[in-house]
Every structure is written in C-alpha cells, then in structure tokens.
C-alpha cells in the first residue's frame, strides 16, 4: 500500500488542492532553521499575510526536528527526519468535517478497526472552555465514550506560536496495540508511556486569537492536521517500532551487512540503538543535502554536520570499517527517489559532500583527542579530579566530540565528569535551538491594521504593463514621529504617511527587489513616494510625504513610477538571472540561490556553494554574463501552469511556489526562472556587468555584489582615473603602474628589514649590558628579562626574540649561557628559552621546562633541548614563569 498516494487521493476527492512537499529549508522565513511541521510552509496563510491558492490544501511534508536527536534509538518512535501527512482548511470547513475526514480515512481506506482507536480532547483550563463540540462529534462518529480522554492545555492546546496570535484546542487520535502490550494495568490509557498506545493523528482547531490578555474567537477559523507516515506505517504493518517497518528495512539490512557485530563489543540493546541512530540519521542527511543544506559550524549546516558525525560515530561502534555513508545513501535514494526525485538529482553532489565529511571527521576526532589530552595533563598538573563541564561541553559543541568518549578517556586517567553539569549546558543549548524553531515572537503591531484594510479594499497591480496609471485613493494612514500608524481622512502638506490606491503601477518590495519610487499627484497636491511595500497580500502601501497641497480619501489621482529608478532595478534583476545561470555553468548545477537584494544602484546575490570560487572562476562568470549582454538576447516573460514550468526546467524560487499559474522569466534558451519581478526586454539593455565583491556570509553561503549599466561604467571610469593618478605619482606609464608599485614595495621591505635589524641590535646591546658574571656560584649565565615594558622591544615577534637570543649566545662564544626572554605578542605572553650546546650535552632540556612553565601562563609549551617556547593567556604571570624557568634550569644543571 502506498500510504502517501492513498492519503493525497482521498483529500483530492474531498476538494483539496494537492501540493508537493515544501523544502526542509523554509522559504523567506528567518524565524526557523528547518521545516518542523506540515503546517509551517503555510504560515503566511494562517497569519493572514497571504491568500492561499485554495481554501483546502493537502500535502505530504518532509520534516526535521532537532529537539529529540539524543532520544533517537532509545525509543521505538523518535525520529529526526519524518514525513507528515496533512490536510488544511483556511476559513473553509472546521471541526465536524476534519473529524469526519480523519475517521473515514482511517477506517474505510486504511481498514483499521474503530475499536482500536482512542481520542483525546481539550478538557478546558482557566478561561478556556472544554471542547464540548469535539467530544460530541467523536461520539456521533462512533467512538465510545470510555475511549475519549481529556487533557489540559499543555497536551491538547496549540499555540500561540509567539506571545500573541492564532491558537486553539486540538484533538489526537491514538491507536491501541492491545492490553497484551505495555504495562498491563487495567487503567492504562494514552497518557501512559508504556508503548501500548501510539498517537497517529493530531487535529488542530485554530479558533482563537490571543491578544496578550484574552482569547478572542476568530471570524475565520482554520484546520491544521498532521499524521506521521512512519507511525501509521507501523500500525498498518503491526509493528511496535517505526524502525521495523518497510520504510526502514532496506537501510537497516544494509547497515547489518556492513557492520561486524562480533568486533563491535556492543550489547544487543546497544547494537540495536546504534542501528537505529545510523538509519535515522542517514535518511535525514541525504534529504537535507537534497534541499540545499551544506555542512557547516553554525545554523542548519551545523545540525547537518552533527548528525553526519553521530552517524559515523555509531557506525564505528557497529564495527563498520572505512567510509560507509554513501553505501547507505544509495539504498535510501533507490527507495525514495520516486516521491522525492530531488534525491537522485543531487546524488553526485551529496556523495561528494559526505565523502569529504567522513574524511574530515577522522581529523576532527584527532583534534578533539589532542585537546582532551592537553586538558587531562593540565588537570593532573593542578591535581584536580574533575574536568570542568564547560570544557567537556566545548569539546562536544566545537569538535563534535561525543561525551561518551570524553567520559571513557577520563575514566582511563582516573578522572571524572559531572554529567549533571554537562547536561545543564546541553539543555541550555537545546533550549536555544528550540527557540529558533517557532514563529516570530512578535508580530508587527501594524499587521492587524493592514489585515483589516485588506478586508475592505485591495489594489490591482498594473506595473507590468504601464508606469503611469489614473486611479483612486482608497485609504490613508498618517505616520507619527514614533512610526505609529493611524487611519486618517486626509494628509496635508508636510505630513508623512501611506497611501493605498485602487490600482497601482508601483512594484512593491518582493522577492528581493526593492519597491518603486515615484509620485502620486493631481494639479492640487503632490505626494512623493519613497518606497512601496505589500505587508498583506493585495494591500499595496505607498510610503512617503506630501510636499504640496492636501490628499483625501476618494480623490482621483495620477500614479507615476520614477522611470530611471525602475529601469535600473530591472537591469539589475535581469542580471541576477544571468549571474545565476553563469554560476551554475562554471561552478556546477548544485549551485542554488539563497537570497538576493535588487536595488537601482547595485545588487547582491547570495548562493549556496560548498567551496569558495577562485578568481579565475569569477572572471569566467563575469565574462559569460557580459557575452550574453553583447548578444542582446530576448527576455521573454509569460504565465503558464506550474506543471509546464517544471517540464521546461524553470527554476522555482521563493514566492511563486504555490500558485496554480506561475510567471516565467526566460532568457533565450538558457535561463528560465519563476519570478514576479520586473525585467528588461533584451539583455543588451544592461550595457555592462561588473562584479565588485565576492565573500562568505555564513555557513557555505557566498555573496556576490555587482553593478550594471552606467553604474558599472562610472565605477570603471573612476578606477581608470585612480590608475592615471597612481602612474603620475610613480612617474611611470599607466601600463607600468604594477611594476612601479612592486619596486616601491621592495624598497619599503628593505628599509623595514634594516630598521628591524637595527632595533634587534639595540635591544641585544641593551640586554648584553646587563649580563651577569655567573649564577649562584655556578659557571653558567642565565640571562632572563621581561621585555614587556622595554620600549626597544615594542612590536617584536617571537622570531625576533629568537634572533636576539642567537646573537647573545654568539657574544658569549656559545658557552654555558641560557637566555629567557619574556614578551607580549598580540597581547598574549610568550617565553623564549635558548641554551648553548655545552649545557645540552650536560642534560639540560628546555623543551620540558617550557612545557611546565606554559601551564603557569594558562597555556602550554615545548620544543627542543636547546630551544623552546611557551605561551598562554595569563600575561600577569610572565614574571612567575620566568622565575620558575630559572629555578628548573638551575636544578637540571646541578
């Protein structure tokens, strides 16, 4: 049975629009790292910011949750990656239909017995009433009263996601595996965690809006439901564990084939846990990469890297030799590429990333081991029994070093870790991660005003066809000095505010493109439009100031976009499409846009890239874009069905995803993207394209800033003027400027070296003038100085200190001399220790002394018997470290 297909077909028959799964990377939603629920892609619809393409929608949504990563393997049901089957209603049907659909599908289409089902409803709490309606509806549908349980707000009430917003009671459907499963108690119910009951479907009734003080009934109520595919599969196959289902069996079998149970040294329970961890994480890894996530040390990239490392770690515990994740990945892709073709499309790219990560993690493990070894040595030196939990967590967080390994190595060294304190730091880390997976805490205080306006009036956008429209003022807002809005009947000269028109040629900021500027006017007033926004779908707000006269609601006006501003923006927007095409051609098809900002003077283009492009690659990209500009290719824009757009290979980005019809921007036969922005008619209108910067902005995310047209010409002209000025200053021809600069730099380097040598000689002479005759009656000289406050030592590095030491040894004819020089380099203490060869032959070992003295500086050290160096972070301890070193030298020279 194909549960996905059966579910979607059922709801299609019930009038739902079936949509494909959204990406695991949320689009235009910085409040969350990953898609954690089936309803998350529809957040703008629930908040009333956008209108859904249909009031009934159904999906099978890919989801990833981080909060239970460490529970995976210990239970039969916890997963990081899972599929959520959902049906959604936006102001259409409500509780009666939602409950009927759910029970009808479970009983008549999945053939489950009604006497195996239990349900939970909201029992009421505080000012929130009991959900009597849901209780009555379940009874009407045939659920026995004794199998309806009631729970409070923490279990059966959803939201609000932030401090305020939509929320409501929910009802859950549980499957009963029977009294022979679980605890065996007579009063066992869905609240028991014995394993007898499995929650399979949650129906959320969004009927209230919490305004911070009270719960107010929503005029338009919504439905959000979710049924876990893995859970319902377990029920249908009669399995208590989701890991025993056919969804997991191919990958579990492959893991068993690769593992060596005998050499794993794991108990049966530990072996089963490791199997489950690897299987779960492997699924998550390849789905995340297919949706554009790349391993990194922060954000969603960190989550991916963490589960890759955990999978490798547990694979090694299973006795798997060598690299293995791509072997498992092949099994996963073969089994899931039907419903999720993006897995096969990104297979080559994913395999490369995984190979790199598996190789890198072995090095990371070595790094963590090295850091832990140093920490253990320091603990023993200070005679401590416990490692600082912060250090253990830092190993876990920074290096991905499993705490189990940390504890094992500590035990081998008779040291301990306070796991309660470690868990405290870990819980703080998890809590921080969870905070990043909910809706924005605060909703714009103006949003309710805009939503109310949307119910009364909305604007038609005419800006694709014309830049000038005769229209009517339908709403006015005055903007106070504190940026607060109020509805007014008119705006007078000098007042700031916002105008809403019946129709508008002004493009509102969207998809990265800046909003238009221009003017709204009659012969009696002039309103200068400084920006255009769409806070709620259909509501175009023109922000600006009245510079002449008075504008009133109902006035017939002229709306005119600033032509040069729009043209420059259109050039830059078309340039982003050309740049995207060229980057894919040069760097690989896996390159994907991660955002953009299109203004009139410049634009930026963010893209996911696993390795930084070289200068040669960027030069090629720039050349290819300019070649297409010279070709003067046609830019064609048309609307078509989403299915046809997919057939012709149009790249789907951002806001166009869910429409029945989509707008395609096609450049000749090489670039096709879904886009709602404005563009030129031919590429030649761009004139010139120039990249002005390329940089990293985060986890494997790069940013290119570029300019086109006269802005590019003016920049190149300015560079030419600067090159001409440089040539005149250097007294060379323009073509010889580089040679002139190189000659100037060589002269500077030579003078700097000469000054450095003079400085070293002066400091050497200063130190030599204070040489002792001997040390405590011994025939050795110990020259020890703290140079921090010596003005001659200012700016010297560790190498310069070593050069001074060599010169002092030569002055002493390389006989029975030890030099200890302390200094601050980059505001951190550094100790340089040097000895003449005759003392080394007598047993002096400065490497060991530096290692010990470094601990006093809260650091470390080491080196050879005749030359060593120590350092740390405690600058105030440098005199103590020098004296300690002197004492140890005297002891070794006895």
Overview of this structure, please?
The structure is a single chain. 39% of the residues lie in helices and 25% in strands. It has 25 helices and 34 strands. The strands form eight sheets. Strands 1, 2, 3, 4, 5, 6, 7, 8 and 9 form a nine-stranded mixed sheet that branches. α12 packs antiparallel against α13. The radius of gyration is 35 Å and the shape is globular. The relative contact order is 0.05.
Question: What keyword list fits this structure?
Answer:
894 residues; alpha+beta; 9-stranded mixed beta sheet; 25 helices; 34 strands; 39% helix; globular
* Beta-strand content: 15-25%
Q: Report Rg.
A: 35 Å
Structural class designation = alpha+beta
Distance between the termini: 86 Å
What percent of residues adopt helix (DSSP H or I)? 25-40%
Low-confidence residue ranges: 433-443, 654-658
Mean pLDDT: 88
Coarse shape = globular
- Note the total helix count: 25
What kind of sheet is the major sheet? 9 strands, mixed
Number of strands: 34
Structure at a glance:
The chain is an alpha+beta fold. It contains 25 helices and 34 strands. Strand 28 and strand 29 form a beta hairpin.
Topology overview:
Blueprint (H helix, E strand, L loop, with lengths): L2 H11 L3 E2 L24 H4 L9 E9 L16 E10 L4 H15 L7 E6 L9 H9 L7 E4 L1 H4 E2 L6 E12 L20 E14 L4 E14 H9 L11 H10 L9 H23 L8 H19 L7 H12 L5 H4 L1 H35 L4 E2 L1 H11 L3 H10 L3 E2 L1 H17 L11 H10 L3 E2 L6 E12 L5 E3 L2 E3 L3 E6 L1 E2 L13 E4 L4 E11 L2 E10 L1 E3 L3 E6 L1 H25 L4 E7 L4 E6 L6 H17 L3 E7 H6 L13 E7 L3 E4 L14 E10 L2 E8 H22 L6 H32 L12 E6 L11 H14 L5 E9 L2 E8 L1 H5 L4 H11 L3 E4 L3 E5 L6 H15 L2
């Amino acid at each position: 049975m194909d549960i996905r297909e059966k579910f979607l077909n059922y709801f299609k028959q019930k009038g739902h629009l079936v949509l494909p799964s959204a990406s695991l990377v949320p689009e235009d939603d910085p409040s969350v790292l990953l898609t954690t629920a089936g309803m998350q892609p529809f957040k703008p619809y629930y908040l009333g910011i956008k209108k859904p393409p249909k009031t009934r929608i159904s999906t099978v949504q890919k989801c990833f949750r981080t909060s239970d990563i460490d529970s995976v393997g210990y239970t039969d049901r916890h997963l990081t990656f899972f599929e959520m089957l959902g049906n959604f209603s936006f102001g259409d049907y409500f509780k009666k239909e939602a409950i009927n659909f759910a029970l009808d599908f479970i009983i008549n289409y999945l053939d489950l017995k009604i006497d195996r089902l239990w349900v939970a409803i909201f029992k009421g709490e505080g000012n929130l009433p009991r959900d009597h309606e849901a209780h009555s509806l379940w009874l009407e549908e045939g659920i026995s009263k004794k199998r309806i349980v009631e729970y409070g707000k923490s279990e059966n009430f959803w939201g609000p996601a932030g401090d305020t917003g939509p929320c409501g009671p929910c009802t859950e459907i549980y499957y009963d595996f029977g009294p022979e499963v679980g605890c065996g108690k007579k009063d066992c119910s869905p609240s028991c965690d014995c394993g007898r009951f499995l929650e399979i479907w949650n129906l959320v009734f969004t009927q209230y809006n919490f305004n911070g003080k009270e719960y107010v009934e929503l005029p338009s109520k919504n439905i959000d439901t979710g049924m876990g595919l893995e859970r319902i599969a377990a029920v249908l196959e009669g399995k208590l564990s989701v890991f025993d289902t056919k969804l997991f069996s191919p990958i579990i079998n492959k893991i068993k084939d690769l593992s060596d149970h005998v050499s794993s040294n794991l108990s049966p329970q530990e072996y089963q846990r490791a199997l489950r961890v690897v299987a779960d994480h492997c699924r998550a890894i390849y789905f995340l990469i297919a949706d554009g996530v790349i391993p990194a040390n922060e954000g969603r990239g960190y989550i991916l890297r963490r589960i890759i490392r955990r999978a490798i770690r547990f694979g090694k515990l299973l006795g798997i030799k060598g690299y293995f994740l791509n072997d498992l990945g092949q099994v996963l892709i073969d089994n899931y590429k039907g419903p999720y073709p993006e897995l096969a499309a990104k297979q080559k790219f994913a395999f490369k990333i995984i190979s790199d990560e598996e190789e890198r993690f072995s090095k990371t493990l070595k790094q963590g081991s090295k850091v832990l070894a140093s920490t253990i040595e320091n603990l023993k030196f200070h005679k401590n029994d416990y490692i600082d939990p912060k250090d253990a967590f830092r190993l876990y967080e920074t290096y991905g070093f499993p705490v189990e390994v940390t504890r094992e190595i500590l035990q081998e060294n008779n040291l301990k870790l306070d796991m309660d304190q470690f868990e405290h730091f870990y819980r703080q880390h998890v809590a921080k991660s969870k905070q990043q997976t909910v809706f924005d805490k605060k909703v714009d205080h103006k949003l309710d005003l805009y939503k109310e306006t949307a119910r009364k009036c909305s604007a038609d956008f005419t800006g694709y066809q014309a830049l000038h429209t005769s229209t009517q003022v339908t709403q006015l807002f005055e903007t106070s000095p504190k940026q607060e809005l109020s509805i007014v009947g008119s705006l007078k000269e000098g007042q700031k505010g916002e105008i809403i028109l019946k129709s508008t040629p002004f493009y509102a900021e969207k998809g990265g493109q800046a909003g238009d500027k221009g003017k709204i006017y009659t012969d009696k007033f002039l309103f200068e439009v400084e920006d255009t926004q769409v806070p709620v779908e259909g509501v175009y707000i023109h922000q600006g100031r009245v510079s002449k006269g008075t504008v009133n609601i109902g006035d017939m006006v002229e709306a005119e976009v600033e032509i040069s501003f729009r043209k420059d923006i259109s050039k830059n927007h078309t340039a982003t499409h050309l740049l995207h095409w060229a980057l894919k051609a040069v760097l690989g098809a896996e390159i994907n846009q991660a955002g953009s900002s299109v203004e009139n003077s410049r634009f930026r283009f963010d893209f996911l890239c696993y390795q930084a492009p070289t200068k040669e690659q960027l030069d090629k990209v720039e050349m290819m874009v300019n070649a297409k500009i010279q070709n003067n290719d046609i830019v064609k824009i048309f609307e078509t069905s989403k299915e046809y757009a997919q057939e012709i290979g149009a790249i789907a980005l951002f806001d166009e995803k869910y429409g029945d019809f989509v707008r395609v921007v096609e450049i000749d036969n090489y670039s096709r993207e879904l886009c709602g922005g404005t563009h030129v008619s031919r590429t030649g209108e761009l004139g010139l394209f120039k990249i002005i910067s390329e940089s990293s902005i985060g986890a494997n995310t790069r940013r290119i800033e570029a300019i086109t047209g006269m802005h590019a010409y003016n920049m190149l002209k300015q560079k030419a003027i600067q090159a001409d000025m440089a040539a005149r200053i250097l007294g060379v021809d323009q073509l010889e400027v580089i040679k002139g600069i190189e000659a100037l730099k060589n002269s500077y380097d030579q003078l700097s070296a000469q000054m450095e040598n003079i400085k070293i000689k002066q400091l050497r002479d200063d130190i030599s003038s204070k040489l002792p005759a001997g040390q405590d009656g011994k025939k050795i000289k110990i020259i020890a100085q703290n140079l921090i406050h010596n003005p001659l030592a200012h700016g010297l590095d560790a190498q310069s200190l070593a050069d001074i030491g060599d010169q002092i040894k030569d002055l002493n004819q390389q006989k029975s001399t030890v030099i200890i020089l302390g200094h601050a380099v980059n505001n951190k203490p550094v100790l340089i220790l040097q000895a003449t060869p005759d003392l080394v032959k007598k047993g002096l070992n400065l490497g060991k002394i530096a290692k010990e003295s470094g601990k006093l500086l809260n650091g470390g050290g080491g080196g050879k018997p005749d030359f060593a160096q120590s350092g740390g972070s405690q600058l105030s301890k440098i005199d103590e470290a020098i004296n300690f070193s002197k004492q140890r030298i005297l002891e070794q020279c006895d």
